[in-house]
Predict the structure.
Amino acid sequence: QGQLVESGGGLVQAGSSLRLSCAASGRAFSAYAMGWFRRAPRKEREFVAGIDWNGSTISYSDSVKGRFTISRDNAKNTVYLQMNSLKPEDTAVYSCAAEVVASYRGGPYLETAPYGSWGQGTQVTVSS
């Protein structure tokens, strides 16, 4: 089945940066598209960023485009989310996920792919 574990969250001031990590164990996720999602209090979970299996295509939500960068290191079975210029509205629990079946697809597919193998999430709180 495999397991995903997020880390790197915390409490920061607006304008600061954080780097989230998503470490996979139990099986190799190198063939799978990966996504970062977030859920703010009283809101639905939303797509943040996605990356295809080899990092050749990436997709971002409009709300984070230009501030966040997703990357992956398949040798380390880890996906990252570099978050710069953080805003209070970025406050949420951030989770990573792998697509259920390796599709080798990218582009717009990354936002709506059938993701499974969700991690527990890491809290990011941005104060104003």
Observations:
- Helices lie at 109-112.
- Residues 21 and 80 are 5 Å apart (CA to CA).
- The chain has one helix and eleven strands.
- The first strand starts at residue 3 and ends at 7.
